[in-house]
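dude i think i finally got it to work??
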Amino acid sequence: MSQNALTNRHDFLILFEVTNGNPNGDPDAGNMPRFDPNTNRGLVSDVCLKRKVRNYLELFPLVRSAAAENGFNILIKQGSVIETEQLKGIEAAKKQENDKDKQAEAAMRWLCREFFDVRTFGGVLSTGNDIMKGSAWGQVRGPVQFTFGQSYHPINPLEITITRCAVTKEEDKAKERTMGNKHIVPYALYAAKGYVSPAFAERTTFTQTDLDLLFDALLHMFEHDRSAARGEMIVRGLYDFEHIGTQHENNAEQNKREARLGCAHAHKLFEGIKVELTEEAKAKGFPESFADYRVVCGWDINPLPKGILLHKRHDS
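look at this
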């Protein structure tokens, strides 16, 4: 167990928008934007958001200092072979332990130390034919988990036909042009929720430095992910509810327990953030931009539950 592991529970809400883009295409539906067929509200998968975080940290990696306990490499990335990286951890573990189960545990801890995404999101490491296969230490449950992002209102995806003056194959040279298509959402505002468990942070050595890095990645994850397919995507809000405990400083142990367990239900904290259409947008019947929304933080008016601090990360 790391002495520097995160000790306080966090629940956070992230608001992000898309304009004339496809935030998360569904490969089983011709790459159309994902949506709930019952409500037509848009969806963005949790793994899509994790991918943005990984991509940001891969572009702007941190270098481990001499005093730092953890590394900041990314395991799940383009071209990475999981078993190759896993083998490095196994070899390091074999130098420390003789028992197979202890080797598996040591290898898991090595991978958590070296790879930011493993100690943050967890992963399945029980692959290959060595000590990790079939081991309970091969299933790592990360302290940070996301829900699906969902738009506040129904989306109306558009299929746009495009043309290309060049052709791919020699036999198509006689053609004047080739045709294609892309799918876009004209505008939508999405919300996703995230949860950080200190109980699992202790197991993977996830620290406060890692949490700060995660929030930095979430705030900037679209800034360096621009493409014609995704259009203009912007993070509009990141509300971080930190559980700090309700006890007096003289009762430090009980206060630490409360901060670890939590001082209020996450859904009640999230319900304090109200996102509504303006009267002008209601008259139109649909939103066209962020200006058509009114975001009200009820916790600016009403007192937060005891033992909770609200950090508006988007304002920092």
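The CA atoms of residues 7 and 198 lie 5 Å apart.
im so relieved honestly
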